[in-house]
């Protein structure tokens, strides 16, 4: 899941970004509305966590722009004003959900995940290939009945491959969907994570490397 956090209080913005990355999400963080619009113009985000009170372009205008753009990004609006009228106004601007400050981080994560499921194409609640199963909602994966101890990046990469079915997923797409804008396009992070994941999945192998293409779930030929 690719998430954009737009929050002008830098300490809170960085904390939200760090927390969501620990949940296996790819997160970009910006501190004002102008930077948010620049990011949205170049990247498709599943969820935008949007503070309503922003310097530069106001959060309300950013929200309107997202709703009018038709890219399918879902908006979770944050604000210190938590009255019913404020919530109604926020939803009227095109926000999909509304969370007043202060908030519990576990609730924020749950709401972001729920919005992410709405923004993505419909996929089965349980992803499966042969004896490999992955439950995105419970954040667990099993191979042959054995629970896999995966890092957030390993889990997210496996989820991305399973959701793609027979389609080849390029290294560039994995960097975009599993990592974030800080990832170096020349990094070996994808190759390294795939190698660790293969070791944890065991035999027979289920991740196929496609020459000059990327990766997909399947038995190598």
UniProtKB/TrEMBL annotation:
Single GO biological process annotation from the record: regulation of DNA-templated transcription
Superkingdom as given in the UniProt entry: Bacteria
Keywords: DNA-binding, Phosphoprotein
Residue ranges occupied by any OmpR/PhoB-type domain in the UniProt entry: 124-219
Location of 4-aspartylphosphate modifications: 51
GO MF term (any one): phosphorelay response regulator activity
Stretches assigned to the Response regulatory domain: 2-116
Pfam families assigned: Response_reg, Trans_reg_C
Secretion signal span: none
Residues within the DNA-binding region(s): 124-219
GO cellular component: cytosol; protein-DNA complex
SMART domains: REC (SM00448), Trans_reg_C (SM00862)
Record-annotated membrane-spanning stretches: none
Xref: PANTHER family: REGULATOR OF RPOS (PTHR48111), TRANSCRIPTIONAL REGULATORY PROTEIN CUTR (PTHR48111:SF36)
Protein name, UniProt field: Response regulator
Organism: Microbispora catharanthi
